[in-house]
Give the backbone structure.
Amino acid sequence: MIQLTSKLSSYLVQVKNITVQLQQRFILQNISLSVQRGQIVTLIGPNGAGKTTLVRVILGLIKPKSGEIDWHHPICIGYMPQRLTLDPILPLTVMRFLTLNNEKYKADISKILAEVGVVDKQQALLSTLSGGEMQRVLLARALIRRPDLLVLDEPIQGVDVVGQYELYELINRLAEQRHCGVLMVSHDLHLVMAATDHVICLNQHICCEGSPDTISQHPAYQNLFDSRAARDLAVYQHHHHCAEHSLSLPTDTAK
Ligand SMILES: Nc1ncnc2c1ncn2[C@@H]1O[C@H](COP(=O)(O)OP(=O)(O)OP(=O)(O)O)[C@@H](O)[C@H]1O
């Protein structure tokens, strides 16, 4: 039996034992997870593991075949999609794009663009933005309605290595300053380890989960990501309560 309920709890969202079947195929089985305020939870897993499907379940867009989802009530979820396909000839400025459906928040938009580091791009056409600038604009869009929960589907794709670290630092800072929860999908193991509180390795089911330093030693994690690749990846941690976040670039990627 499916139950989609909204009730008061210490969690922003709590997924209990859900199973998803699409076109006669099991895509997700027995998945449980939760996200609290100030917490960053990251889903990692190979292509086709079901990460985006799980995100869509949490957004309420896909109904699981069985299991239960509780959302904190009330909850506002800010979503940053994996990609946004726009017609490049559309003469849409960043400001216009961000005010679409968000007229009542117009006065906040400059401040949010400053928060994500692209305030100088307000009047730029979307088609002229670099990959990293576009990701920041999409992040700004997810922040406009002051969400309790930010859901970010591969937020750093198309961004160079230095830009990736900066974006993860920004996400950490936002989670702390806004005291929102973050559920993030990522392929980038190095960076995931640096920027998250709780990692969930997904491959239709949850293979393993835990804090970044414990998960990197887990046999299921090593199997999932090839033991050599997993072993070679150093663990970088962030600390929520440091006055300054510092994610140093690993020497092998800081090229
Ligand atoms: N609407 C759908 N109908 C049928 N199968 C689907 C549907 N949506 C996704 N799938 C299948 O579900 C599986 C998981 O897809 P999903 O996009 O969730 O994976 P993912 O982990 O996000 O992958 P990637 O890392 O490549 O983005 C895939 O095999 C995909 O083909």
